[in-house]
């Protein structure tokens, strides 16, 4: 059954813990359950964030857009960008985050140019497997150095941050953004988007979604399209297909099991919708993933 959690329109927007006065770089490593979702929007006020997703699949929501990250991806977030993320798969969520003040990376930004740096911040960055291994190793080394906490660790971390940044800059794959841009911000719609992710297998109807944020169906339908630029049905279908792609590429579940987990009534209906969208059957898509084409 659908999650029955009372919606509160006036949810608190939280701020991450700021950097301490004696730090210009802070390195954090977390492992959480696959189902973990950030309960609130939050934004850093005094630092940038550079993150590496070790495992899991996450959907990231900001005031302006939606982005999707998979294991091996890197994201750079600027200060004062309000965001939250939630699970897209059953894979445990593990990530590294480097928080840094602008002055820690300013020399590198000056070298590549502000416009190039801004482009890197627009979406998650993807890499070939050999680059992912190298980048993960650098995050691990920075985490170890941060925990050494010697009098010169911050200076060492500054050098390591520059090395990591240039590895990312030189080795990321061409940016082909598929993010959804919002026409405007509405906290109620953002909460519905997370609600969809958390209840996808139950195929939440437009009536369910409207009820979740205490709106009439007609009001909700208009508001959803105003914010996202698409209908609720189109968005729900696109989200189901995103999850189906993940399950086809990363699990051995049958097509029927995937249909159930993604809210399709049966395997035949999933195959019909999948073929129409991608001009490819689910079985063929799975084979191409195994063969390394996708």
Automatic annotation (TrEMBL):
Domain HTH araC/xylS-type: 190-288
PROSITE patterns per UniProt: HTH_ARAC_FAMILY_1, HTH_ARAC_FAMILY_2
Superkingdom, taxonomy of origin: Bacteria
Annotated SMART domains: HTH_ARAC (SM00342)
SUPFAM superfamilies: Homeodomain-like, Regulatory protein AraC
GO molecular function, one term: sequence-specific DNA binding
Keywords: DNA-binding, Transcription, Transcription regulation
Name of the protein this chain belongs to: AraC family transcriptional regulator
Species of provenance: Lachnospira eligens
Lineage: Bacteria, Bacillati, Bacillota, Clostridia, Lachnospirales
């Amino acid at each position: 059954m659908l999650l029955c959690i009372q919606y509160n329109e006036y949810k608190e927007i939280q701020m991450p813990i700021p950097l301490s006065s004696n730090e210009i770089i802070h390195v954090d490593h977390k492992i959480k359950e696959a189902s973990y979702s950030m309960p609130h929007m939050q934004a850093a006020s005094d630092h940038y964030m550079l993150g590496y997703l070790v495992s899991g699949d996450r959907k990231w929501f900001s005031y302006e857009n939606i982005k999707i990250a998979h294991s091996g991806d890197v994201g750079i977030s600027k200060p004062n960008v309000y965001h939250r993320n939630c699970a897209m798969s059953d894979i445990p969520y593990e990530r590294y985050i480097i928080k840094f003040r602008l002055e820690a990376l300013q020399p590198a930004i000056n070298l590549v140019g502000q416009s190039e740096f801004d482009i890197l911040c627009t979406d998650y960055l993807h890499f070939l497997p050999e680059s992912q291994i190298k980048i993960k190793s650098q995050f691990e080394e920075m985490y170890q150095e941060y925990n050494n906490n010697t009098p010169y660790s911050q200076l060492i971390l500054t050098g390591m941050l520059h090395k990591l940044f240039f590895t990312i800059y030189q080795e990321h794959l061409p940016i082909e953004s598929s993010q959804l841009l919002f026409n405007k911000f509405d906290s109620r719609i953002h909460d519905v988007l997370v609600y969809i992710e958390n209840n996808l297998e139950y195929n939440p109807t437009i009536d369910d979604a409207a009820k979740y944020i205490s709106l009439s169906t007609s009001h909700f339908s208009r508001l959803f399209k105003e914010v996202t630029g698409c209908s609720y049905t189109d968005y729900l279908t696109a989200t189901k297909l995103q999850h189906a792609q993940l399950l086809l590429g990363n699990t051995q579940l049958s097509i029927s099991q995937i249909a159930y987990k993604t809210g399709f009534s049966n395997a035949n209906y999933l195959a019909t919708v999948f073929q129409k969208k991608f001009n490819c059957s689910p079985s063929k898509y799975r084979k191409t993933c195994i063969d390394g084409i996708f």
